[in-house]
Design a protein that fits this description.
This protein has two helices and five strands, in the order ααβββββ. The longest helix is centred in the N-terminal third of the chain and has 55 residues. It is of the alpha+beta class and 169 residues long. It has one domain. Strands 1, 2, 3, 4 and 5 form a five-stranded antiparallel beta sheet that branches. The radius of gyration is 30 Å and the shape is elongated.
Length: 169
Amino acid sequence: MRMSQRQRRRTPHMLGFSLAEVVVTIGILALALSGIMVAFVGAAALNEDSEMLSKALDTGMAQIEATRLAAINNFGAVVPGTTFFTIPGPASAPNAYAATSRGVLTVTAAPAGSFYYVITAKVCWQGRAGRSMGEDRNLNGTLDGGEDTNGDGQLTCPVDLVTTVARRN
């Protein structure tokens, strides 16, 4: 028995979706979810960068304070020079940054006849996928050829702390 055109049309008592409707809906949902995942991954990377910046700042400040304390207790014991230190990694991967995070603590004697030191802490690191945070791409504490991206002739890092310590009389 042949169905008439009227019988082939969908009637209100028929339930469900056609295959084409289901495929289109799944495609739209997949597209929306992929956009959300890209935003989620970007937010996770930003969170990790923020955590590393905070740890770098804390570690740099601790290095400066330790040097200041040594200078206050015994001014002659502070030796001008450069010292390197590492920064603990983020909570998500605490040991992952051990080889890719480095700070440089520099103690510079003031001009002759002055009674103060200039203490500088600069911290650069490499983030996800080797992305350099700061100009010191090889983390050796010096400005090498090709690293001076802003053309100021100095090593520029996200954490750049400077203080002075004077001799007490």
